[in-house]
Amino acid sequence: MMNAAWRRLSLLYALLLCAASPAAAQQVQLAFLDVGQGDAVLLLTPERKTMLVDAGRNGTVVARYLHALGIDTLDLLVASHNHDDHIGGFPDVLAEIPIRSYMDNGVPTTRTYRLYEQFILPSGARYLQAESRTIRLGSVQVRVLPPPDRRLRLRRTEQNNRSVGLLIQYGQWRALLTGDAQEEELGYWLRVDSVPPVTVVKVNHHGSRNGTTPGWVARTQPRVAVISVGHNSYGHPSPAVIAAWCAAGAFVFRTDQNGSIVIRADTTGHGVVEALPDVAGAAVSPTSACGGGP
Fold it and tell me: Model-level pTM?
């Protein structure tokens, strides 16, 4: 039903001015910020509760976007996993924006320890373990998909395959954020967690070939797939990955081509997708990597 609603509505486009309208006040907003080769995703609920997931390698763009929205506090800061292209920008953000709660994957690195010592511990923020739990941010629910137990031996990068998964739900609208999870962790979630069809999915690991599986595409069935990616030497995103999401009927958007991608939706699943080539500028119609706009 949720996907049918998106088909009927197609994808509408609007200017950021609309955020001030009464209708927009009842919408959830999810912004995939263009931070180059990295991730930074901001959730803003109708009640202006906030969750920031990652901040890229340099958090200047993130801090600027938060200030532009008048956000002076983050209710929840989540490190999907502790690689520099996801948490390297946290100091820039934390130097300007206080936080109430913090979550990571429980697999610390040297940089993580420095974050704790310099910013998180002095702030008095509450630490939340990435365990099976549902966090309520106003009218939005965030269900945590815990990473595999560390005793489970994985063949690939420990950090990537122990990314924190987040299932965001606002009525019939759902979005799924899963960091840089690769084949092993995706298979784990498909086996042990109830991963439902969603409206929006963040394509794992910047569109890498091992960050998408046929089973993951078939289970999630999104209408919109967003790839957070910048100039890189890894071959991200993989053409095969883009083709897989397009073949499943999703509109695929890339931050390296469209700029920051902003999605707003109401409880019925109806929504708008916008692109912000410059986060300080007006929104434009993004172009799907599947060929043309919707």
Answer: 0.89
